[in-house]
Specification:
It contains eight helices and 15 strands. The protein is α+β, with helices and mostly antiparallel strands and about 300 residues long.
């Protein structure tokens, strides 16, 4: 099981989006689906039995999409870097992602990459496609951009994440030089780091961006036990208003879902009654209480 899974909030078109991604990327496959139940319908307003979420994999990397409605919107504050070693494959992927989408940075040669482009696809998801060098360990890498009130805080955030999660390690720091029009000297032009065996990128951007972190893209963490849930919640959550059903925000506005491993299995179960019990038990929670979830699953 992938420890940290990007979670994409879509406006009732998750099935369409997953079909698109699994067809244009390599090794695309659906890992499982979960349906809405009667429990919590007064909140989610979705038809019981309709698809709630889909776990899928592309390029060996897992994502989750949810048919969540229009409450939250995906923006480029969290994008996904795609490293390919084939120039033709980059061009082909670029054209497919650009259909119905828009260019954020043209596909071209840049000082940092012989071939690179940044595109926001028709579902709002942003992809940075670039020519990789040597052996590529992780083809798709989530990239966090610190804008607006948290511009200049990327390095501080990286230090928090690498000290909070297991096996944290900063791999690369590239800083802005003096004389940049917006960004302060020494803030992060680009960086990447390792947590829980997964690579992430982060950068500062003090330009006039209309977006910052939101629930549109959150990071779901599969936890082994209550001790791990408690530890991550204590280390990361700072906004009580954002705490619900395992969701919370850190001090930089990044949304996280801190959930037990068994939750994915329960939500994808064919046992509707068990799912109803678990969801009903979970709805009043802020931080997940694993003991209560397990008792609900057993019908106790």
């Amino acid at each position: 099981m992938q420890k940290i899974i990007p979670h994409l909030w879509l406006n009732k078109n998750a099935e369409e989006a997953v079909a698109f991604y699994t067809s244009i990327f390599n090794n695309g496959k659906i890992l499982g689906t979960a349906a809405y139940t009667e429990a919590g319908q007064e909140i989610h307003q979705m038809k019981p039995g309709s698809i709630m979420s889909i776990n899928f994999e592309i390029e060996g990397f897992e994502f989750i999409t949810i048919n969540g409605g229009s409450i939250f919107t995906i923006n480029p504050s969290i994008s996904f870097m795609v490293h390919y070693t084939d120039k033709d494959a980059i061009g082909e992927l670029w054209e497919k992602l650009l259909e119905g989408g828009k260019t954020l940075m043209p596909l071209d040669a840049y000082p940092f990459s012989e071939k690179y482009g940044w595109v926001q696809d028709k579902y709002g998801v942003s992809w940075q496609i670039m020519l990789g060098q040597g052996t590529i360990v992780q083809t798709i890498m989530p990239s966090l951009m610190y804008t607006q009130r948290v511009a200049g805080k990327a390095e501080e955030a990286i230090n928090l994440y690498t000290s909070t999660f297991r096996n944290g390690e900063v791999k690369m720091l590239a800083r802005y030089p003096a004389g940049m029009p917006d960004d302060k000297e020494g803030t992060l032009m680009y960086s990447d780091f390792l947590i829980e065996g997964q690579m992430f990128a982060a950068m500062d951007s003090a330009g006039k961006h209309a977006f910052t972190f939101s629930e549109g893209v959150s990071l779901l963490v599969n936890c082994e036990d209550q001790t791990e849930i408690d530890r991550l919640w204590e280390a990361l959550s700072v906004d009580p208003e954002a705490e619900q059903c395992g969701w919370m925000k850190d001090k930089y506005g990044v949304s996280w879902q801190i959930v037990p491993n068994i939750m994915q299995e329960i939500l994808r179960s064919d046992d509707t009654e068990k799912k109803n019990r678990v969801i009903a038990a979970m709805m009043p929670m802020k931080k997940i209480d694993l003991d209560v979830i397990e008792k609900a699953a057993r019908g106790e």
